[in-house]
Amino acid sequence: MASRKRNLPAKDAPLPASKLTRAAGEKRHVSALILARGGSKGIPLKNIKMLAGVPLLGWVVRAALDSEMFDSVWVSTDHDDIEKVAKSWGAEVHRRSPEVSKDSSTSLETIQEFVRINPEIDVVCNIQATSPCLHPFHLKEALEMITQKGFDSVFSVVRRHQFRWQEVKKGSGEETKPLNLDPGSRPRRQDWDGELCENGSFYFTTTDNLLTRGLLQGGAVAYYEMLPEYSVDIDVDIDWPVAEQRVLRYGYFGRATPEVVRLMFCNVSGCLTEGRIFMSKSGEEMVSVHTRDTAGIRMLQKEQMEVVLLTSKLDPVSRSLADKLAERTGCEVAEVGEEPLDDLRPMVKQRKLEWKDVAYMGVDAQDVKCLNLAGLSAVPSDAPSVAVNATKYTCHRAGGAGALREFAEHILLQKEKAKAQMEQHRIDRHDF
């Protein structure tokens, strides 16, 4: 993306008078800001790496939007790919300047730049992109501490029951000392309240704090305590499998119950294959199918899900090739016209299903209606923007190179999430 010229307010410019005070009863502009620099040292492009079928960034953007507490939700980034993902999840994008995109740049400097460029904002919530178990109710309850109780700063904490000891440098000859316990009367866990530690999920503060005091936590300060199960912070790659299991159990999947689909439609050209048809000397048509994708089909079939492969009258394949695909994958192969929806509606009705029970994998403009209508939908990473904008899930892999397997895993993760929710509901009813 070409660099964008901007006129930044002077770093030491005074706040407009309207920012320092608000007329009685006048609503303040509250904005969510997620910092997502492209140059992560631990995990490259960590902020858009897929976690439980969703880009890491998507978890917190969804929670912020669904809280309905913000007048605007922003992602601050210096990377084109992160900007693309942020916009696809409904966030606005602040392209940070080179001055605050360095390894040495602080979060405070980036937030200060953001509020100088957007002077209408009165309260900012800095949400950490690496907190995928954040829920809308966390943000709502914390913000109310500012809007209803008069605090200037509110940040998230978690209670830890860990005994701390003073660090001793090698070769110093010093002895360590306890920092938060008396070894002579070591408490039991149930007899000790523990300590409150920042978990980094979010920091609410006023622009007055940011620009006048130069503080993220200043003025009248309060904390918002989150339960340990929601306090997930991903810093290194080894955290990923653990975080994924935690997200399946405690993550926020949106207002609706995760979809459990029973039928999947998948385009052959561009999804199961890369879109090319090879011709032998004898005129026989051939396509290349990745074993990873056929394994994905078997995963779905093992879960009693029917998979139907779609060929198009706009890009027909020979009957013999369709028969080979059916034999190879164990799937029905159906031909659809210019509007696939017209041909697929009767198939869905015949199976006594609704479109919320259907997963659809498409690749181009003719698939848009089905992508929008299906309970779950996906496109490969190399799909054109018209399809990307219509889908619910964009794969990291290209068509014919594992995209179908990736979508299959996403479908099964949604199924696991639905099971977890049902189990939690059963437990709650049993306990209460």
Automatic annotation (TrEMBL):
The keyword Nucleotidyltransferase applies. It is an enzyme of class 2 (transferase). It catalyses: an N-acylneuraminate + CTP = a CMP-N-acyl-beta-neuraminate + diphosphate. Its EC number is 2.7.7.43. It comes from the Eukaryota. SUPFAM superfamilies: HAD-like, Nucleotide-diphospho-sugar transferases. Keywords: Nucleotidyltransferase, Transferase. GO terms for molecular function: N-acylneuraminate cytidylyltransferase activity. GO terms for biological process: N-acetylneuraminate metabolic process. The keyword Transferase applies. Residues 1-21, 169-190 are annotated as: Disordered. Pathway: Amino-sugar metabolism; N-acetylneuraminate metabolism. It holds the Pfam family CTP_transf_3. Belongs to the CMP-NeuNAc synthase family. This is N-acylneuraminate cytidylyltransferase.
